[in-house]
């Protein structure tokens, strides 16, 4: 069956032992970091992979020929083989003699004469138990320098319940109603071993040749163009396609698709002509006519950015039906997307995968510890380049990710127990460090540093340190970084900490100086993070002042000084006392800034003037975001923070509004058990009503995504605050469902209307929703029921509704509600004071019966006690929980630690409330009086 031979590959030696460098110790960004490494006695120098998939039958057969170089004398060869892959046969031949044999033959060049292949005895070949390894024991020891050809035959399953390794999936041909199968690969991060035996580590970059069998109706696409086709020896109407040899690449860059898809091809001009082919099922291909333009734009900008042409002779992009992977597959020269991903508005997703063609495929991380920094740099370059030709796609980049990491890294315990959140947050932070460096050493120097890096590491592997070194060398060459400072040192101070700093600026107006201090930024109380006094960063101090705004604003992002891991510095030669200063404009670095009250007041007054737009919009947003978050953390008077919102009355730029909604939500939840909350809701309505009415109910033709998003957010928060037109609109839509002859057949009401009805509507409307959950048909999508249950529990303002839900699920033990439903209800009730207060009262009133109900369900008991006690934030709440603790001190059982932790947290929150609630309420009272409003 297997007749195609393998020519001798050039021997590419990977000297693993000589690589002892270590990058910045980031995080265990992937479980693969701790994976057992292959021995370094052998390394591959080339593969020829033969595959014959049978998609209808769900399996594949294959053979691989691996040219293996002996690095150190050994009698073993160890490869990666997935447990699901069955190896049928192993055969080894020595193609080139060892160094010792050459020396004995008095030869210095192995190509001076022909050496006949010599069979190598295989003593044993078997999988290693409980490890994805295949151990081949040779009958004799082979010396270093020898070149072996290892041939292995194998077979495996084509799974269609996952999009990993070599998988299959299908779709229905709309014309013939016939099921059409296709086969594809997704090798990241280490799934090549499930397709063929290999050295499945990123450092082993070698050339590949693929020979793939297919039916005559199908076509095969791999990393490289087709070289030859010949008929199959055994199967009628089948052919073998052999493809051109690839450049050196990692196993995770392998890409193969076998399908009956239709295609559109466009030749993109540049340093060289690149044929780009878009593939999809025939009835979907017309939906992708604009994809070629997006790819062309990305290619043009990225080739200019790297000053290295696209590395391969072609590019194929697939829209796969039923593609189940969480992210696109960025195989080298073969990109796989979900159909919906290629149809979305904007270009960032495509550009992000295009960046991997250089950074990841052309230059590859040596090991998974550097995959994190690779991912962060890819994200930054993708955003940077997308903004060059499609700014609407990233209308508020990088603020959206920056605000998220501010919240995550300011928690007492970042990430919780979620490794995924840790990976995403750290990667996002590193992306922002690249942005900070782009500003502080200058865009030209940054790009030249990236070009220096890619030229040095193309067709090779790299460590994270190589990126920082290239930037350091370029910055020194451009006189942007004095000796002995290194970019590595700057970056490490940020990347190695699961925290961010806050810089506090206290001005001396008479001496025209300012004292700057840095410390850990913490929002959650108590601020008792261990060793926080030891945390210090390299912080660039970029400053603008009021005088800089008199002409057209152009940001000089060169730092006036660096805080070189110094706790405190003195800034001199500041403007006079009539002028404000702004540190870290445009969020150059990922850190908030606090000021003395006078500087804040000058900023607030200026923002309320008609000169407001002289401050760039990102900086306006930053000032607002910093003020509110510092007040939330207890570091700034709330009156000062609320003053910073006054300019929003006249602000219409959606980028300035972007942080407002998160802040309204955070503060609103924090104070919703106090008398100030009703006044705060009235203030929110006064703030948002004119904005929403000006934007109108419906999108306007040609409006930006940002404006559409602003309209939607405004409506959501107006509804939450009791905006009458919104409530009536929601109730009218909901009435259609209530009046329908068969309400359990489906929900005709948009999700945006459900919560306002359950929050502000009647008990009858809420009961109707409860009945729909109880009678929910098994034939409908379960997520619809989940959403309905979440809103039933989480939205109501009325304690009677919550009581009703708790009675029916816990006391009456209605069989339509599972333990998971009850767990969900408890979680949702923590979202509002009405929810957790009602739950607390219910627990206290029905303590004995609930204890019996949950006697054998400690997880539900612990969750209920947590949800009922942990969220209080005032003295009244502290008194309630303390009384319960005294009453039932010996009865909490497994939840004993919960109540003790709750009391500790509530005491901290009570201090905050005692200090801030009177200030917030006094400010709101004054604002209402000034605007002639009564609440």
Overview of the molecule:
This protein has 935 residues and is of the alpha+beta class. Among the domains are: 1-259, tricorn interacting facor f3 domain (Immunoglobulin-like, Sandwich), CATH 2.60.40.1730; 261-395, Neutral Protease, domain 2, CATH 1.10.390.10. 39% of the residues lie in helices and 20% in strands. The strands form 8 sheets. It has an 8-stranded mixed sheet, with no helix packed on it. A hairpin with a 6-residue loop joins strand 13 (226-231) and strand 14. It starts with 41 loop residues before the first strand and ends in a 5-residue tail after the last helix.
Produce a short descriptive summary.
This protein is α+β, with helices and mostly antiparallel strands and 935 residues long. It contains 27 helices and 30 strands. Pfam families: ERAP1_C (PF11838), Peptidase_M1 (PF01433), Peptidase_M1_N (PF17900).
Using DSSP, what is the number of strands?
Answer: 30
Low-confidence stretches: 1-30
**Tell me, what is the CATH class of one domain?**
Mainly Beta
Question: What helical percentage do the residues reach?
Answer: 25-40%
Q: How large is the count of helical segments?
A: 27
Which strand order spans the largest sheet, edge to edge or round the barrel?
5-4-8-2-1-11-14-13
Q: What fraction of residues sit in β-strands?
A: 15-25%
* Overall SS class: alpha+beta
CATH architecture descriptor of one domain: Sandwich
CATH topology of one domain: Immunoglobulin-like
Radius of gyration: 32 Å
**Ends: how far apart?**
85 Å
């Amino acid at each position: 069956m297997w007749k195609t031979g393998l020519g001798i590959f050039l021997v590419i030696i990977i000297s693993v032992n000589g690589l002892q460098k270590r990058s910045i110790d980031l995080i265990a960004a992937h479980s693969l970091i701790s994976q057992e490494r292959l021995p370094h006695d052998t390394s591959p120098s080339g593969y020829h992979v033969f595959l014959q998939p049978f998609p209808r039958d769900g399996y594949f057969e294959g053979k691989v020929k691996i040219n293996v170089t002996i690095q150190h004398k050994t009698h073993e060869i160890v490869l990666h083989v997935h447990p699901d892959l069955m190896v049928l046969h192993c055969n080894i031949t020595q193609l080139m003699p060892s160094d010792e044999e050459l020396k004995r033959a008095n030869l210095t060049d192995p190509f001076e004469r022909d050496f006949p292949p010599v069979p190598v005895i295989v003593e044993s070949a078997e999988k290693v138990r409980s490890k994805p390894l295949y151990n081949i024991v040779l009958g004799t020891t082979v010396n270093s320098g020898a070149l072996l050809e290892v041939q292995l035959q194998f077979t495996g399953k084509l799974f269609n319940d996952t999009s990993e390794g070599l998988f299959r999936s299908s779709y229905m041909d709309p014309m013939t109603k016939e099921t059409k199968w296709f086969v594809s690969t997704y090798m990241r991060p280490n799934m090549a071993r499930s397709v063929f035996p290999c050295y499945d580590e990123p450092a082993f970059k070698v050339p590949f040749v693929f020979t793939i069998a297919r039916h005559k109706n199908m076509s095969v696409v791999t990393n490289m163009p087709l070289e030859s086709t010949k008929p199959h020896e055994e199967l009628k109407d089948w052919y073998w396609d052999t493809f051109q040899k690839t450049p050196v690449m990692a196993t995770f860059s392998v890409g193969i698709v076998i399908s009956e898809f239709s295609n559109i091809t466009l030749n993109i001009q540049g340093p060289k002509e690149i044929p780009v082919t878009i593939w999809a099922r025939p009835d979907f291909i017309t939906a992708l006519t604009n994809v070629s333009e997006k790819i062309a734009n990305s290619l043009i900008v990225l080739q200019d950015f790297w000053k290295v042409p696209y590395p391969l002779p072609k590019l194929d992009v697939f829209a796969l039906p039923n593609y189940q992977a969480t992210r696109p597959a960025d195989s080298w020269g073969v990109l796989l997307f979900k159909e919906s991903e290629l149809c979305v508005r904007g270009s960032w997703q495509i550009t992000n995968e295009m960046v991997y063609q250089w950074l990841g495929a052309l230059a590859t991380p040596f090991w998974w510890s550097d995959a994190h920094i690779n991912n962060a740099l890819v994200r930054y370059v993708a955003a940077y380049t997308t903004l060059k030709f499609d700014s609407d796609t990233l209308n508020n980049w990088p603020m959206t990710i920056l605000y998220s990491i501010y919240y995550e890294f300011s928690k007492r315990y970042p990430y919780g127990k979620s490794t995924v959140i840790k990976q995403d947050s750290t990667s996002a932070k590193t992306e922002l460090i690249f942005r900070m460096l782009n500003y502080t050493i200058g865009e030209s120097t940054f790009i030249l540093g990236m070009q220096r890096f890619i030229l040095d590491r193309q067709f090779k592997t790299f460590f994270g340190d190589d990126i920082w070194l290239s930037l350091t060398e370029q910055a020194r060459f451009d006189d942007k970084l004095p000796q002995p400072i290194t970019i590595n040192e700057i970056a490490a101070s940020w990347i190695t900490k699961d925290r961010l700093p806050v810089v506090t600026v206290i001005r001396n107006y008479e001496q025209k100086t300012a004292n700057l201090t840095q410390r850990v930024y913490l929002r959650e109380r108590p601020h008792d993070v261990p060793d926080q006094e030891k945390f210090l960063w390299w912080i660039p101090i970029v400053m603008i002042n009021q005088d800089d705004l008199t002409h057209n604003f152009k940001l000089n992002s060169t730092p006036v000084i660096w805080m070189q891991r110094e706790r405190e510095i003195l800034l001199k030669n500041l403007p006079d006392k009539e002028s404000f200063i702004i540190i870290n404009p445009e969020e150059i670095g990922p850190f908030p800034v606090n000021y003395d009250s006078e500087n804040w007041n000058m900023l607030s007054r200026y923002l309320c003037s008609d000169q407001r737009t002289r401050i760039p919009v990102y900086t306006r947003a930053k000032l607002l975001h910093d003020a509110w978050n510092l007040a939330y953390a207890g570091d700034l008077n709330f009156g000062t923070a609320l003053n910073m919102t006054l300019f929003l009355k006249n602000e219409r730029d959606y980028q300035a509004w972007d942080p407002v909604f998160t802040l309204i939500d955070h503060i609103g939840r924090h104070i919703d058990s106090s008398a100030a909350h009703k006044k705060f809701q009235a203030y929110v309505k006064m703030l948002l009503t004119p904005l929403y009415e000006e934007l109108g109910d419906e999108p306007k033709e040609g409006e930006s995504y940002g404006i559409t998003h602003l309209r939607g957010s405004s409506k959501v928060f107006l509804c939450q605050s009791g905006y009458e037109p919104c409530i009536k609109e929601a109730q009218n839509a909901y009435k259609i469902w209530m009046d329908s002859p068969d309400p359990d057949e489906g929900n005709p009401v948009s999700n945006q209307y459900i919560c306002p009805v359950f929050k502000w509507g009647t008990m009858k409307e809420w009961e109707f929703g409860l009945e729909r959950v109880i009678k929910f048909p098994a034939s409908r999508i379960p997520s619809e029921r989940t959403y309905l249950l979440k809103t039933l529990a989480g939205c109501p303002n009325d304690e009677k509704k919550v009581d009703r839900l708790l009675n029916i699920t816990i006391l009456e033990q209605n069989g339509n509600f599972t333990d998971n439903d009850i767990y969900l209800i408890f979680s949702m009730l923590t979202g509002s004071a009405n929810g957790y207060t009602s739950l607390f009262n219910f627990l206290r009133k029905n303590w004995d019966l609930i204890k019996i109900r949950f006697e054998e369900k400690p997880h539900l008991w612990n969750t209920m006690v947590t949800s009922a006690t942990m969220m209080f934030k005032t003295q009244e709440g502290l008194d309630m929980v303390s009384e319960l603790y005294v009453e039932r001190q010996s009865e909490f059982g497994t939840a004993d630690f919960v109540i003790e932790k709750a009391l500790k947290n509530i005491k901290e929150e009570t201090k905050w409330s005692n200090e801030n609630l009177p200030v917030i309420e006094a400010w709101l009272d004054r604002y209402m009086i000034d605007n002639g409003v009564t609440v």
